[in-house]
Design goal:
Distance between the termini: 21 Å
Strand content: 25-35%
Number of strands: 10
CATH topology: Rossmann fold
Largest sheet: 6 strands, mixed
CATH superfamily: P-loop containing nucleotide triphosphate hydrolases
Helix content: 25-40%
Number of domains: 1
CATH class: Alpha Beta
Bound molecules: adenosine-5'-triphosphate, magnesium ion
Radius of gyration: 17 Å
CATH architecture: 3-Layer(aba) Sandwich
Shape: globular
Structural class: alpha/beta
Strand order of the largest sheet: 6-7-8-3-9-10
């Protein structure tokens, strides 16, 4: 079963200007439900751009994105935001965490955005953090955590709204091999427990090997 689909998608930045970039040139792919799909390929090949389209964070210049057979281009911005909040979790660079807030406060943020009372959001955040082995760091500020601990905070935050789809961009960029394996194992167990679908972009061979399905990108296209 297909959860998300890109159909002949183009993304052209700065269209018509001298520094125009065709970041995606007619990409089509299916994201199968319950599986981990990885995007590999050199820097600048379009991985992050494709993730942002599938995550409904930006609009394709041409072509279409479907989430559960709903066509992106006909959805209103309000509805897209609702889908993004309720169905999709994001792990982008860990710098997006708020260093002066505690781990619980950081994880609770996307839940507060869905108009959940603070006490409910924070207790859910605590639950997620404990699942990820962070029970001793609940009231630490993110600035006081190691790279691997921050990564786990990012995962907990991405999972707070029980998403169907988890989108991760370079999830192993700030951590060593051992922690990468640990994070991948965590993701796999969350996939089993929560019927989660994962799409990940990475340069890391460990991440690419771990995935169930792998696509390599080059120059805005999927080549294999
Ligand atoms: N907001 C933007 N405005 C203009 N050009 C952009 C923008 N975002 C990305 N690009 C360009 O689009 C191309 C694809 O970028 P993208 O970030 O998708 O690559 P990537 O495969 O994720 O690379 P990396 O492995 O370095 O993260 C690059 O040439 C980049 O310079
Ligand atoms: Mg990128």
């Amino acid at each position: 079963m297909v959860l998300a689909r890109a159909e002949n998608v183009w993304k052209i930045y700065n269209s018509g200007e001298p520094h125009e970039v065709s970041a995606l040139r007619g990409v089509s792919l299916n994201i199968e439900r319950g599986r981990a799909t990885a995007l590999g390929g050199p820097s600048g090949s379009g991985k992050t751009t494709l993730l942002s389209l599938i995550g409904l964070l930006s609009k394709p210049t041409k072509g279409n994105i479907f989430i559960e057979d709903q066509e992106y281009s006909i959805l209103s911005e309000v509805y897209r935001t609702k889908i993004r909040r309720e169905k999709i979790g994001f792990i982008f660079q860990s710098e997006y965490l708020m260093p002066q807030l505690t781990t619980i406060e950081n994880v609770a943020l996307p839940k507060l955005a869905t108009d959940t009372p603070r006490s409910v959001a924070e207790s859910k955040a605590k639950e997620r953090l404990i699942e990820l082995g962070m029970e001793k760091r609940l009231n630490f500020r993110v600035a006081e955590l190691s790279g691997g601990e921050r990564q786990r905070v990012s995962i907990a935050r991405a999972m707070i709204n029980d998403p169907d789809l988890l989108i991760a961009d370079e999830p192993s960029s700030s951590i060593d091999q051992e922690l990468t394996l640990e994070v991948l194992e965590l993701l796999r167990s969350m996939m089993k427990q929560n019927a989660l679908t994962v799409i990940v972009a990475s340069h890391d061979p460990l991440v690419l090997e771990w995935a169930d399905v792998k696509y390599m990108m080059e120059d805005g296209s999927i080549i294999t």
